[in-house]
Q: What sequence folds into this?
């Protein structure tokens, strides 16, 4: 991947007496419409809609998505996860990482351009900024102008919208960990707990700072993905690229000047049919003198990170495709074919065969499908109850009233949302299972149940024996856990 020098505004000057760091200049991205920007807006509405709507959705009398840390319960619609289900969380993280590898190898930084929280919230804050301060040229003039009544009012309106939206974001975030309806009522009564208030303001402040002020600096300087993305790219990865061969040399021209391909055909036909130079017959420059790029700089003006895609692919690019929509709109006005800036592979730009589906993407895709299938199967088939068997560490066995006895503790975990009663039995040995108290649990309870296995003297051989504890629930679930039973050697 070609990394070009950063724009001049980010470089330190060569004067030895100057500062080594130049203050960041705010980027005023121009608004553009097009098919890719429509997709980005749709992604913003869908993702933020889910974020703000899900906590208010009820499911069987409780909040549909709630991470109840004090009770150690994680409710996701009809599923309830416990700390013992950490395996599923670990598998989800592996799936997320593999998804990043897969989509990056397939089509570059799709995550950054369309689904990253930094991108999504920044888009909303930019919309508010446009609403309060106007279009790009108006915003540039406003920032450059002196502080007057209009500037104060517009800046106040912008930050007012930002703060309210950021606090709503923080409130919603806390609503995933505290029932949001209860949280809302306490907020109206000014009766929030200290930690709830802290996280609302902390997350709100982080949203306000990241999406309102830092913006593209998070992507360029703070996010590690921008630095190691090149390790996941290859010559067949779809990237946003400028067609240098078609666009260069760039320059202004009349609207009547045809595109490069048309000029090549016209000049070729003139040279064949006439002995006079083609330039004498046609009223526009030859193909080698002027490419299709009209040097309007619109692709730079719409870029949210302030780069010029014509300099080559750079690590700052978040693949938002705003430059594609901007360039296509100019090509349409000029009557030129679209695609001067487009999604393409490095091989495609060099007129070499491209393979989007290749061993790397096929292997990533197969692994991703397998892991997703394993996660779904694991969640679907998991037992509503779990049991661990712990032997008494004080003695292997003891002899009581002509019986040999082993002592165990059963740890029974109820993972369901309803109370359970259990039937216990033992297999693998002719012995009696003595249960100290009733085997019953409340929802989410972990029951420590002491039990004893008693076998008559002379009925079992000495040494160790493989046994199995069997736990059966009222709804038909059956859990089997293996253990060992020991008898004195003289019984052999």
A:
């Amino acid at each position: 991947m070609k990394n070009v020098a950063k724009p001049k505004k980010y470089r330190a000057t060569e004067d030895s007496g100057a500062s080594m760091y130049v203050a960041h200049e705010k980027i005023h991205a121009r608004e553009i419409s097009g098919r890719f920007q429509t997709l980005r807006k749709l992604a913003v509405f869908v993702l933020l809609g889910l974020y703000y709507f899900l906590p208010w959705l009820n499911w069987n009398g409780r909040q549909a998505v709630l991470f109840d840390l004090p009770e150690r319960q994680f409710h996701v619609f009809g599923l309830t996860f416990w700390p013992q289900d950490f395996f599923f969380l670990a598998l989800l993280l592996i799936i997320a990482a593999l998804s990043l590898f897969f989509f990056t190898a397939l089509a570059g930084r799709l995550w950054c351009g369309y689904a990253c929280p930094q991108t999504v919230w920044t888009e909303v804050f930019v919309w508010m900024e446009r609403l309060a301060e106007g279009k790009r040229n108006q915003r540039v003039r406003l920032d450059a102008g002196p502080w007057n009544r209009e500037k104060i009012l517009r800046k106040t309106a912008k930050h007012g919208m930002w703060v309210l939206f950021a606090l709503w974001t923080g409130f919603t975030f806390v609503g995933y960990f505290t029932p949001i309806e209860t949280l809302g009522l306490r907020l109206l009564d000014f009766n929030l707990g200290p930690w709830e208030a802290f996280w609302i303001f902390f997350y709100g402040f982080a949203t306000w700072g990241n999406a309102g002020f830092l913006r593209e600096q998070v992507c360029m300087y703070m996010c590690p993905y921008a630095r190691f993305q090149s390790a996941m790219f290859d010559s067949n990865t779809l990237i946003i690229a400028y067609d240098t061969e078609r666009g260069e040399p760039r320059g202004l021209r009349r609207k009547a000047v045809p595109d490069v391909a048309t000029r090549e055909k016209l000049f070729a036909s003139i040279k064949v049919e006439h002995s006079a130079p083609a330039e004498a017959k046609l009223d526009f420059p030859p193909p080698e003198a002027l490419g299709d790029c009209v040097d309007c700089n619109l692709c730079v003006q719409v870029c949210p990170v302030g780069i010029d895609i014509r300099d080559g692919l750079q690590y700052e690019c978040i693949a938002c495709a705003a430059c594609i929509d901007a360039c296509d709109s100019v090509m349409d006005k000029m009557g030129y074919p679209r695609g001067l800036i487009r999604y393409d592979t490095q091989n495609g730009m060099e007129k070499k065969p491209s393979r989007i589906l290749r061993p790397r993407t096929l292997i990533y895709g197969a692994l991703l499908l397998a892991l997703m299938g394993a996660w779904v199967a694991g969640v679907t088939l998991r037992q509503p109850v779990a049991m661990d068997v712990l032997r008494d560490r004080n003695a292997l066995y003891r002899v009581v009233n002509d019986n040999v006895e082993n002592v165990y503790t059963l740890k029974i975990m109820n993972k369901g949302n309803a109370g359970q009663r259990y039937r216990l039995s033992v297999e693998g040995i002719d012995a009696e299972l003595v249960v100290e108290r009733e085997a019953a649990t409340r929802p989410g309870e972990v029951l420590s149940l002491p039990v004893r296995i008693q076998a008559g003297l002379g009925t079992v051989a000495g040494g160790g024996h493989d046994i199995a504890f069997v736990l059966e629930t009222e709804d038909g679930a059956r859990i089997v856990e293996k253990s060992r039973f020991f008898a004195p050697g003289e019984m052999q």
Notes: Residues 31 and 302 are 6 Å apart (CA to CA).
